[in-house]
Amino acid sequence: MLVAKNQRHVSGNPAKRGTAARPAPAPVTLGDWIGAARLRTLPLAVTPVIIGTGAAVLADADRQFHWVIALFCLAVAVLLQIGVNFSNDYSDGIKGTDDFRVGPARLTASGRIPAKTVLTVALTFFGLAALAGLAIVIRTGQWWMIAVGAVCIVAAWFYTGGKRPYGYNALGELFVFVFFGLVATLGTTWVQAQYLPQEAWFGAVAAGFFACAVLLANNLRDIDQDRAAGKRTLTVLIGRLGTKILYTVLVLLAYAVAAYVALFYPVAWLSFFGLIAGGPALAIIWAHKTSRELVTALALTSISSPIYGIFFAWALIG
């Protein structure tokens, strides 16, 4: 009887049925797309290119700055980072992980845009990164680097994509350390100088530490939602206190690297200017009361990374 009673109030036009009870979703704006690109993470793509280029100038017999190759390295890093971010939006959305998200919904999870559209955008950025990488290969003749680029894209996809994403099994930090630290920095140095001085390795490790720290800040913010969704990040496994300690250790180790390098290249002491942003981030990690504060900590950690990288590279170049 209740169903029959309700049906008397339903419009006879099938196109209009249910519209009164369920408002139309808000249209997707440019701001939504920019938000999905997660601009706060992009400084992490810049840092290894800066450090790697500084190491390349140091390694080059003529101390030359190969600015064209450096710019294409920057394009590869930034485009790949954006591709990863859209890929995560797509994969987390279709898996239902973002259904537990607190705050503004991601593009895919919100249902305001087809999941395939988000996937297409992710693949487009991966493709653009591949084209920029191919340009570097053609310019330098380092054809084996095509395989490196392919591995980077595959690793970026399976971070949250596929049936067994390693980002869901406490391996995300290892991924960002290897690819956004070691591979990005050393690859930048190699294509410019075809040589890897030990300074490039030190800088690569430091860049990787910053990338891991940002991921930890992000996962600390999402720990409750990830646990509810069954997403086993490293933060979910070691808990809040363990994450805070690990974050602190990684940041301190990055500056320990700078201090060691400064024994041979004194300008590297200026890398500690990164603490202008990194210091408040550390304080927030330990004293935060709301998840919103951790968004600020994430952004500050990300910003501190290129500040560190600029002075680290200056030390090597000077």
How is the secondary structure organized here?
Blueprint (H helix, E strand, L loop, with lengths): L1 H6 L22 H8 L5 H17 L7 H29 L11 H4 L4 H26 L4 H13 L14 H22 L4 H24 L1 H7 L4 H29 L12 H13 L3 H27 L1
Function: Conversion of 1,4-dihydroxy-2-naphthoate (DHNA) to demethylmenaquinone (DMK).
Pathway: Quinol/quinone metabolism; menaquinone biosynthesis; menaquinol from 1,4-dihydroxy-2-naphthoate: step 1/2
Keywords: Cell membrane, Membrane, Menaquinone biosynthesis, Transferase, Transmembrane, Transmembrane helix
Task: Give an overview of the whole structure.
This protein is mostly helical and 318 residues long. 71% of the residues lie in helices and 0% in strands. The chain is built from 13 helices and no strands. The longest helix has 29 residues. Pathway: Quinol/quinone metabolism; menaquinone biosynthesis; menaquinol from 1,4-dihydroxy-2-naphthoate: step 1/2. It holds the Pfam family UbiA. It is an enzyme of class 2 (transferase). It catalyses: an all-trans-polyprenyl diphosphate + 1,4-dihydroxy-2-naphthoate + H(+) = a 2-demethylmenaquinol + CO2 + diphosphate. Its EC number is 2.5.1.74.
